[in-house]
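Consider the following assembly input.
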Amino acid sequence: MTESTPLLEVRNLTHIYGEGTPFRHVALEDCSLKIGRGELIGLIGHTGSGKSTLTQHFNGLLKPTSGEVLLKGENIFRSKKATLEARSCVGLVMQYPEYQLFEETVRKDIAFGPSNQGLKGKELDERVAMAADAVRLPSSLLDVSPFELSGGEKRRAAIAGVIAMEPELLILDEPTAGLDPGGRREILDLIADYRNREGKSILFVSHSMDTVAEVCSRILVMNKSKLVMDGLPEEVFIHAEELRDMGLALPEITEIFSYLASRGVAFEKPVYTRDYAVRKLLALFRKEERSL
Amino acid sequence: MNTSITIGQYIPLSSPIHRLDARIKLGLTLLYIVTVFFAQNVLTYAMVFCYLALAVILSRIRVSMILKSLKPLTLVLIFTILINVFYARGEVIWQWWIFKIAWEGIFIALKMSIRIILLVAGSSLLTYTTSPIMLTDAIEALLSPLKLFRVPVGELAMMMSIALRFIPTLTEETAKIMNAQKARGADFETGGLIKRAKALIPILVPLFVSAFRRADELAMAMESRAYTGGDGRTRLKPLKARPSDVLALIGSILYFAACAVLGILGF
Ligand SMILES: Nc1ncnc2c1ncn2[C@@H]1O[C@H](COP(=O)(O)OP(=O)(O)OP(=O)(O)O)[C@@H](O)[C@H]1O
Ligand SMILES: [Mg+2]
């Protein structure tokens, strides 16, 4: 494997649900992309654009109708064993993952993934502790039934269940859906932390630009079963009109700054993170004070 | 919503058979089944077959779909034929070791298989042309005399429609849960019986939890919309028999009666 082999590569992926039935539906059309090591990528698109369908190909849950999925340069469908390996290398946290909890205790539930990987004893305990720590689940909660947790805690326990498998690529499908702002913030923070600490690749699926813009360094946009944009946030946010046509709003911060720009305050690039916005505003105010 | 899962096999088309009042359609299907049992000879079988053929043509359901509904029967048919052919009665025409074949056996085998095919084809025409909801309404209507004996027909029908309504939902949910557990390395495909049975736990527990949660939510939603039981509820789409429906009913009854009489008289 050479330095340039991406961790995951998808070539001309097409997926058709219900082929040969009256319910035939093209959910993915000719999608190609590469994911490198350590990247934190946001995948965004309106409801039904095919995001979940795309991500379910990455660990072999869905088989492409045509096209291929390469993990470290090798097709994940070349053998049954390869597909199973892909499942453990690419961790997929599905939409509403709390509905997958089933064990008597949170600890056992988090251990389900790693023990399927063949881990036992002390090693297994360490993995569970690591994962619980990564999602900031206090150890007092590890020995209660997962069904006694609050909604946000359940969500984090379920995410821990996948993190415990130590995947090289972690995919989170709408991890903040249905949470209050506090819960959302918490999930976003722990994703960013996890990435910074472990240096793993993360793909973050969402239909909120605000969420994606805040944490991701690269953004993929899906529209009507196609991958239509792929680039740095500022490259993507330049296409404000097109994004609006796809039913996607720009991040609120970007909207405000583009309004400012239309009133004659120039910025050299789109503004989309809080930190950058604050710095820009402070600079503006200082200039104003000086000119008084 | 995943639309590829359809419950029953309703094929929404626009045809006289689709429009036929569901109660009448259900009643006629029952009569048809009885008539099939009365059929004894070539003539009566031909008559029943013509009736079915006419209904299929009117319904605009493709013949291939009707044949498809017969596919699961293959094994049953093979057994029926084998048992009847070798259970020889009358004049033996071929014999080997303990196996004997007689003409009568062959006739009975043929008769039985045709009967089964007619029965299944007829009832699948009913499910192809009637939506599950209409079907429950029809069943409720036909069972309503039982109300006299304090059978809660309305509630039973409500239970049936809820069950029908939730089959696709739960199927979809099962698929999702299975995928989620597969993503965590669960393996449902290899291993012995015990291992496979154990592998079901991660699916069944979340499925039950979600079924109960849904039941709870649905009960709450129904109560908050003032559901207090089946009695006195009116319908969104009341079943209404049109003159043409009644005509079809009377015509079919006479036809079936003729078949039965011919069958009994043994022409
Ligand atoms: N199992 C399935 N069978 C048939 N069609 C499906 C199935 N799963 C998804 N679809 C259809 O494929 C399309 C894409 O679905 P997908 O779940 O990938 O969208 P999404 O971008 O994840 O949407 P959301 O934001 O709502 O999660 C939708 O139109 C959906 O109805
Ligand atoms: Mg989705």
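The pocket of magnesium ion (ligand 2) is lined by residues A 51-52, 95, 173 (CB under 6 Å). Ask yourself how this observation constrains the way the partners meet.
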